[in-house]
Amino acid sequence: MPEIGEVARIVHYIHKHLVGRTIKTCEAFADDIVYGKVGCSSDAFQKHVTGRRITGAAQQGKYFYITFDKSPHAVLHLGMTGWMKFDAEETGYYRNPKAKEEEWPPKYAKFLLKCEKETVKGEAREAVQSAFVDARRLARIRLVDCEADNIRNETPLKENGPDPVRDKEIVTVEWLSDLLNRKRVPVKALLLDQGNVSGVGNWVCDEVMYQARLHPEQYSNTFSKAQTKQLYDALIEVCTIAVETRSDSSQFPETWLMKYRWDKGKKDSNVLPNGEKIVHLKVGGRTSAIVPSVQKKTGAVAGDVDEDGETKVAKGRKRKSKAADEEDEEDEEDPEEKPVVKKGRAAKRAKATPVDEGEEEDVMAKNKRGKKALKVEDQADGGAEGDDELVKPVAKTGKGKKVTPKKAEKPATPGSRRSTRTKS
């Protein structure tokens, strides 16, 4: 997924090929997800952008925006696979040497911009075409109606945290310390939240945590002042280098984890040059690369991770089914709602016996809702003819407590026994 360095690369090429140019034509291709999810449309985008002059481009974390000589302006997010391509040169941060020469316009294009040959500020500029592509349709394209200088105070940029490279006057040690102590979440989850910090993605965050020698699962509010300073220094350094090199990994320091982390699952190869082992684990649902020998846990840690970084299998009772949970909730809401249900042989032996009208009214008056049927169990003493005994439903009087009412006593009549088949 494109992160702060990859977005910086996009902005670089927009400045190189488009800023100062007039868009002769804009062909936007209908997509109710890429445009529609943010309240825009391909028709609206095409109509506004055609004929506009591009006055600038910049980024805030994973977002970038293109300003025109007339409002509204374009704010874009690359999603997982979005990119800006130019027919003048290759703009990707890596290229598969076996890949075939791509046709133009490229596949999965969401819009296509064309600029004719022209002179800009005394400089002759050749004709150029640019396309925004996204195969997975997770990118977002929108128009924001505001003054160009005020665009970062509008949605969606205002909902995102400061950019650690562009907003260094905001992102200070004191600011980071306050952010860490406001929440109790795994520190990696906090840094990945774009509402806290803009532009930090998975690999950048892992690099920051490795350079700071901190464990990504440790709770954010458990770090000392010295550790917070280490985290701040690593955050600024990693993000700045990523932006300045435009995410060209060949220019990254040789000491960076990013250069060696991609051999997950390969025996004896997922190690640093000094022999330290790289371990992969899940943090907040994201695959994380750490070096356990230097990233020690010094405070409370989310999850259950051993010293080598491997996730342990938690032991304990199995999780109850959803149906069982719902039954428990119903019982808690109304403990007297359900009578005891007999199972097995007891259920087979249970017999229903008619209840006299007076007795029925008495029992129903004691029942909270008056909807439960009485259950009568005919019990014989040692198999001999004996007394009929009326058994009332078992009631719950509290959480988990069951109380069985005393059996009603009736005078015995020698030699007689009322049968359920006896006609009244």
UniProtKB/TrEMBL annotation:
A GO CC term attached to the entry: nucleus
Residue ranges of every copy of the Formamidopyrimidine-DNA glycosylase catalytic domain listed in the record: 2-139
Lineage: Eukaryota, Fungi, Dikarya, Ascomycota, Pezizomycotina
Keyword terms: DNA damage, DNA repair, DNA-binding, Glycosidase, Hydrolase, Lyase, Multifunctional enzyme
Cited InterPro entries: FPG_cat, FPG_N, H2TH_FPG, Ribosomal_uS13-like_H2TH
Superkingdom classification of source: Eukaryota
Pfam (any one): Fapy_DNA_glyco
Protein's recorded name: Formamidopyrimidine-DNA glycosylase catalytic domain-containing protein
Keyword Lyase: yes
GO BP terms in the entry: base-excision repair
